[in-house]
């Protein structure tokens, strides 16, 4: 990891609030959407929340691989699972958790365009200022670059961090101190316990 790499965990209450903020902005725009496309995997939870707030019944997904766990970036953007429903002449809202470089969002937009959507907009929980493509609706903006660990990816990211730092066999307190000292990342003992109990699923 680079020396100035920092991270924080984003809990579900914050996600719910950001999804609400997004939905408020969509409502105020007077735009109407037929379909929400969540960018898998991180866009699944916020997309469902936004569906609920906006009363949109059709939720589908596109899976795009850009990052693996622990902030490791893949060389190429890859669509591994295309949208499986007809989007011809539909108004589509594309939802993801975070807009970092903009590459994932760009790939999603191009994919939705190719599917014949009549109108499409993008929405993200958090957007970083270095992105190459600004989302249309944003829950919150991040001026300082920080890796966001959403609660639904905590095990994946933390195992990747600890494996890369040769810390998987350390004790709980040592792990917590290491994460705070290295990444300014505060992690509860309860979460560390859960992560370590599941780490074998990532090391097979």
Reconstruct the topology from this structure.
Blueprint: E1 7-10, H1 12-29, E2 35-40, H2 44-54, E3 58-67, E4 73-81, E5 91-99, H3 103-114, E6 119-128, E7 137-142, E8 147-150, H4 154-164, H5 172-183, H6 189-198
Parallel strand pairs: 1-8, 2-3, 2-5, 5-6, 6-7
Antiparallel strand pairs: 3-4
Number of strands: 8
Largest sheet: 6 strands, mixed
Strand order of the largest sheet: 4-3-2-5-6-7
Order of SSEs = EHEHEEEHEEEHHH
- The end-to-end span amounts to 23 Å
Secondary structure class reads alpha/beta
| Low-confidence runs | none
Question: What gyration radius follows from the Cα positions, in whole Å?
Answer: 18 Å
Give a quick summary of the entry.
The protein is an alpha/beta fold. The chain contains 6 helices and 8 strands. Strands 4-3-2-5-6-7 form a 6-stranded mixed β-sheet, sandwiched between helices. Strands 1-8 form a two-stranded parallel ribbon.
């Amino acid at each position: 990891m680079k020396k100035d790499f920092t991270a924080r965990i984003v809990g579900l209450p914050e996600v719910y609030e950001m999804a609400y903020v997004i939905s408020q902005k969509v409502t105020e725009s007077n735009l109407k959407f037929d379909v929400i496309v969540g960018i898998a995997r991180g866009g699944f939870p916020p997309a469902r929340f936004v569906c609920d707030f906006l009363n949109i019944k059709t939720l589908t997904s596109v899976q795009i691989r850009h990052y693996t766990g622990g902030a490791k970036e893949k060389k190429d953007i890859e669509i591994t699972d295309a949208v499986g429903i007809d989007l011809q002449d539909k108004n589509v809202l594309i939802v993801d958790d975070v807009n970092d470089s903009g590459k994932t969002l760009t790939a999603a937009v191009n994919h939705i365009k190719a599917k014949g959507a009549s109108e499409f907009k993008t929405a993200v929980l958090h957007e970083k200022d270095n992105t190459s493509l600004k989302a249309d609706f944003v829950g919150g903006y991040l001026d300082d670059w920080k890796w966001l660990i959403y609660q639904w990816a905590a095990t994946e990211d933390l195992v990747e961090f600890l494996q890369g730092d040769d810390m998987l066999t350390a004790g709980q307190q040592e792990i917590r101190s290491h994460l705070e000292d290295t990444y300014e990342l505060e992690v509860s003992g309860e979460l560390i316990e859960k992560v370590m109990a599941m780490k074998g699923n990532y090391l097979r």
